[in-house]
Amino acid sequence: MSAEQTAKKPFTGFPEGKQRLVPLPGAFFEELLPDIDNLAELKTALYAFWRLDQVEGTFRYLLVEDFLGDARWMSSLGASRRQAEASLRTALDRLVQRGFLLLAAVDGEKGMRKLYFLNSPRGRAAVSAIAAGEWRPTGDAQRPVEVRIDLPNIYRLYEDNIGAITPLIADELREAESSYPAEWIEEAMRIAVENNARNWRYVRAILNRWKEKGRDERQNRRDTEKDRRQYAEREND
Questions:
Q1: pLDDT tier at 232 (50, 70, 90 boundaries)?
Q2: Cα dist. 56→62, 65, 105, 189 in Å?
Q3: Could you tell me the pTM of the whole model?
Q4: CATH no., domain 21-147
Q5: Where are the domains positioned within the chain?
Q6: How far is CA 99 from CA 95, 96, 120, in A?
Q7: What angle do CA 84, 142, 168 make, to 5 degrees?
Q8: Is 220 or 109 the better-scoring residue by pLDDT?
Q9: Distance CA 64, CA 84 (A)
Q10: Rounded to 5 degrees, what angle do the CA atoms 57, 59, 60 make?
């Protein structure tokens, strides 16, 4: 054990109060995690989830610089900066080969730039759009590319009425789009907004009930009011 490792203090625990949570899709644990056998690759995958959650914009991606700019995290990948950078680039290549990340390359003002997207419905749409030329340079060194395509309607509805889309929510929206009529989804989101319950669980519960019991307007109004009270009680617990 090195002197640096010995000197490090143990983790004292998570602080009290609300903490920012980073959602991880179940498929990561079920399909990817059992196959990852490289520590740097695992660290890079987890870091990518965390960093992407902080990126703003409709189509979120990471640059190599997003990893390199975190000195503390980079120090965990190698004994020297050179070793850490080599470890990072190898980990990114492995994650692309594994299908965890999608790579798009664009030729910008400062040469070829590599953009790393999560292999999610939105990430796949973004990479396809870039390949088709549906992007423009932004002039922003940190986010040099903007994808120029319209989102599928259900994604736009969710962002307009509920909030930002995470990879996990994107997968659930895609499943809902194939399971329920478009007008049901739009109406369920409208009800969620009216009842001040801007939460996908609430919308999904409405859709599930309509599928099981049928969509009777008067009964649905009574049921959604009951759901609203139960949701409010859970939020206040």
A1: very low
A2: 11, 16, 20, 23
A3: 0.65
A4: 1.10.10
A5: 21-147, 153-236
A6: 6, 5, 10
A7: 80
A8: 109
A9: 13
A10: 75
